[in-house]
Each structure stands twice: as structure tokens, then as C-alpha cells.
Design brief:
The protein contains 16 helices and ten strands. By secondary structure, the protein is of the alpha/beta class. The protein has a domain at about 5-145 and about 260-385: Phosphoglycerate mutase-like (Rossmann fold). The strands form two sheets. Strands 1, 2, 5, 6, 7, 8, 9 and 10 form an eight-stranded mixed beta sheet that branches. α2 packs parallel to α3 (about 95-105) and α10 (about 235-250) packs across α12 (about 295-300). The two termini are about 25 Å apart. About 50% of the residues are buried.
């Protein structure tokens, strides 16, 4: 069964709850349809721009429009106010352009609302029917090559030594070696389809994702494909299944959580934004980030979503989104009557593919049965999986050079201690306060968002460094796995 179909059947629908107020939202999105990685430079296609624009339009109808179903408290309805939101994306053409298209769906041109009367009694309307120029905060990657979508192989650790070792361990595992051997003929049989781009020694499970990506893009855009008779429905499904297996095992490992460092840093950033929303009484209620699909996968693993469905171990479709809603049933919400943290919960939503066609559904996190998680519980559980400060990252990664050479290892601000469900005077859950304090420290050291992408896996690793499976046990270079 297709991922989106099965997840829809397992998900909890999200009905409009009378009296519920959305205090803030954090959205993490994948880019839209693009050209294949194997044919760099990768570019966002017109279809891809439409996909993310449609997702942005969906979330506008849900959270922002004057007749929205779940309006966000204090968020401007028509005119985008930059101080009310934070929008980030790596320095990458595909991701940056996706973010721009998404934001135009979220805040479309305002037409005559952009008209201004001048002192000389003339009026002027902004160009492009009042097109709204919404800042996309560009964050640099650890790689010197900032266009990550041009890279066929990306390292999930991106400088995190233990994550690189963990990722490489998959390539010497019995599971990988068995799958490699079992699929040798499957991939070699596809050479007539891919031999214009992949050599014979590249047609194997080591390149499971890039081969799938290459063929997947062709089936979407090309009217003719060499030896297309080989691409039966069964073959296409097998390509996707193998790509999913390959990428999941590089993004997450239950017994070696450092492999999911991208999900850990994402979790810290989610909590930082949501907590900022609460402490600021929804002064900045919206956070949006564009990033790699492996960040989805590693977060899914850490949040125990595969327990809901094994399909959470698959590569998410283009323009997929996950959203974290801060909600309350408190009445008469205002800045002077802002709800206490005991009256606030978090709802996790996921849409596999553009939200306009695949309405986001609510799923329970952390092995819970309820799709609404009390804020204190959410904060405590996220603290357990977050890596939120330099010292904790250096310790977890086993790094001692670069930024780690001057970090203070005595700090334990990302502690997973969840002994207390109490809050500080500012309404911050104590475990979260540690995470937030750590993230504030990072603003001084590196900048929170730069570190997140530094950790999130945007580092090129040449295909040549990935040895044949039989010889990969001696590899020390970064293993591939986190791709956008």
C-alpha cells in the first residue's frame, strides 16, 4: 500500500475543535519536485514550485486567512509581518526557491492593499500586484559547496565524528551486505535504463537512492525513457523500497542514536521556537524551516513514530511537511490573559507530499496514544532526544577540534532529566529551560540555525570514498545518507 494511503488510514483526523486557540506553529518542509541529483546542478521544477506553493496555500487556509479554520493567535492575516515569523533554509537553490514559493502561498500578493497615498496626492501600488517580499534566512552549511542539492552523497553527521562512524557501520553490517548481494542482478539488469549516467560498477545497492531518484524523476518528466519496458510497476516499487531501506538505515539506528544527529538538532530547534512563542506570548508565533528528508526520518525514529506505522521509515515525498501546533482550550485568550503552560498542549501533524492534496494528519509522539501532548510532557520528551548546545554536541560526537576545542564540556544544558513537570516563572518547563539556555549559548558561539544545518547533514562526501561493500569495513570517510 502506498505510504500516503496507509498513513491516512492510521492517522487521527484533525477536526475543528470548538474553543481551541492555536498559539503558535512550527513547520518543517521538504522541497518540491526537482531535477535529479545525478545530473547536477539540481533545480526546482515548475511542478516543484507548484507543490510547495500549494502547501503554503493550504497552511494559509488553515492558519492565516480571515476565514481560516485554525487561526494563529496574533498572526497578521494579509500583510506579512517579518517580526512575527522566522523562515530558514540552507544556502541552496532548490531549498531557497522552495521556501520562496511556499511563502507566496502562505502570504500571496495583496493587490490594492499595497497602495500608498503620497504627499502630492498621488497613489502608488507595489509591483507584481503587491507581491510580498518575505525574508528567507539563509544558513550556511558545513560544506564549502553550498548547493547541497547538487551533491549525490551527503553526510548525516557533517563533522560529527561518531555520527560518521555510525553511518559507516551500516556499510559493514550483515544486513547491508546481504541486501547488496541479493540485489546485484536487480540493479545490473537496469543498466540499459541508467547507463547514460551510471557505470556498471555503480549499478548496485550502494547507490540505491541516487538510482531511484534518477529513475523517479524520469518517470515524472520524460515522455520517453531508454528501455522503459524494464520499468514495470513491480520494478519501480522495488526501487523505492530499496531506497527507503538504504536511507532509513543511514538516518536512524535504534541502538546508536548519534546516527540521528540531524533529528536531534531539529528537535532542539523546534522546542526553541515553540518556547519562544510561549515566553513572548505569541509575539513570534510562526516558525518555518526547509530541509532534508533525512531530518524527517531521523526525527521520526527518535519520536518513536515507526511504532505507529512502519511507513514512517520511508523517504517522504516532495513538499512533505510536519507541523507542531501549540494549542489551548483556555477561554478569552489575550496577551494580558495568556494561558498557563498547564493549559497548553502540542499536536504533531504530518503530510506526506503537498498538504493541499494530502491533508496533514495528527499522530501520537513518543509512544503515546493521544495525539495531544501536554506542553510539559512534550518539552521533557523532546529534551531527551535533543542535542542543543556545543558542549553536548562535542561530547556526543567525540569531537575535540574546531569549535569543540574551546567548548566547555562541563555544561549539561541538554540534560534529559525529566524528574519534574514543574515550570519556571516564565512558564518554561525545566527540562526545556536547559535546552533553551544551551541554544542561547550557541547564538554566541555559532548561531543556532547555522549549527542546526552544520549538524543536519549538508556536507559533500564523494562517491569515490564509498568503497565496495566487501571492502568498506576499512572506510573512515563520511557515509552518505542525508539527502534533500
Amino acid at each position: 500500500m502506498e505510504l500516503k494511503t496507509l498513513l491516512f488510514t492510521l492517522a487521527s483526523t484533525v477536526p475543528l475543535i470548538k474553543g481551541e486557540t492555536v498559539l503558535g506553529v512550527y513547520i518543517f518542509s521538504r522541497h518540491g519536485d526537482r531535477t535529479p541529483k545525478a545530473l547536477a546542478p539540481a533545480n526546482l521544477t515548475s511542478l516543484g514550485a507548484d507543490e510547495v506553493f500549494d502547501s503554503g496555500s493550504y497552511y494559509r487556509n488553515r492558519y492565516i486567512a480571515s476565514d481560516s479554520s485554525s487561526p494563529i493567535f496574533r498572526l497578521s492575516r494579509d500583510i506579512a509581518v517579518a517580526s512575527q515569523m522566522t523562515v530558514t533554509s540552507p544556502v541552496d537553490t532548490v531549498l531557497q526557491n522552495s521556501a520562496q514559493a511556499f511563502m507566496q502561498g502562505l502570504y500571496p500578493p495583496v493587490g490594492t492593499l499595497s497602495t500608498q497615498e503620497l504627499a502630492n496626492d498621488t497613489s502608488v501600488e507595489a509591483p507584481l500586484d503587491g507581491y510580498q517580499y518575505i525574508p528567507i534566512n539563509a544558513v550556511s552549511t558545513a560544506s564549502s559547496n553550498t548547493n547541497s542539492e547538487d551533491n549525490e552523497w551527503l553526510q548525516g553527521g557533517s563533522g560529527c565524528g561518531n555520527a560518521m562512524v555510525s553511518s559507516n557501520n551500516y556499510f559493514i553490517s550483515s544486513e547491508y551486505l546481504a541486501t547488496y548481494d541479493e540485489t546485484t542482478s536487480f540493479y545490473s539488469d537496469l543498466l540499459p535504463v541508467i547507463n547514460s549516467t551510471f557505470d556498471a560498477d555503480e549499478a548496485n545497492f550502494k547507490n540505491a537512492y541516487t538510482i531511484f531518484d534518477y529513475i523517479n524523476v524520469a518517470t515524472i518528466h520524460n515522455q520517453t525513457i531508454p528501455s522503459s519496458d524494464l520499468l514495470t510497476n513491480e520494478t519501480l516499487l522495488q526501487l523505492k523500497v530499496l531506497a527507503n531501506i538504504h536511507e532509513w538505515n543511514l538516518a536512524y539506528n535504534a541502538s546508536d542514536k548519534i546516527r540521528a544527529v540531524a533529528g536531534s538538532t531539529l528537535a532542539a530547534q523546534v522546542v526553541q521556537q515553540l518556547n519562544s512563542t510561549l515566553t513572548g506570548k505569541s509575539k513570534q508565533p510562526l516558525g518555518i524551516q526547509f530541509g532534508a528528508y533525512a531530518s524527517f526520518m531521523s526525527f521520526f525514529g527518535l519520536a518513536q513514530l515507526p511504532a505507529v506505522s512502519a511507513d514512517f521509515t520511508g523517504v517522504v515525498d516532495y513538499a512533505s511537511t510536519m507541523a507542531f501546533e501549540l494549542v489551548t482550550n483556555a477561554t478569552n485568550v489575550s496577551t494580558s490573559n495568556y494561558p498557563s503552560t498547564s493549559d497548553i498542549s502540542v499536536r504533531f501533524l504530518f503530510a506526506n507530499g503537498t498538504a493541499a492534496e494530502n491533508e496533514p494528519q495528527a499522530y501520537p509522539l513518543f509512544g503515546r496514544s493521544d495525539t495531544l501532548t501536554p506542553w510539559t510532557t512534550f518539552a521533557e520528551e523532546m529534551a531527551k532526544i535533543s542535542i542543543g548546545d556545543t558542549a553536548a554536541w562535542c561530547t556526543a560526537c567525540g569531537n575535540s577540534t574546531g569549535v569543540c576545542a574551546s567548548s566547555t564540556t562541563g555544561s549539561d544544558s541538554s540534560s534529559s532529566d525529566a524528574n519534574a513537570a514543574s515550570t519556571s516563572e516564565n512558564g518554561i518547563s525545566l527540562p526545556v529551560a536547559g535546552v533553551i539556555g544551551a541554544l542561547v549559548t550557541l547564538v554566541v558561539v555559532l548561531g543556532v540555525e547555522t549549527l542546526v544545518y552544520f549538524l543536519a547533514g549538508l556536507k559533500l562526501v564523494k562517491k569515490a570514498t564509498l568503497a565496495h561493500a566487501a571492502a568498506s569495513s576499512g572506510a573512515t570517510g563520511g557515509a552518505a545518507g542525508v539527502k534533500a
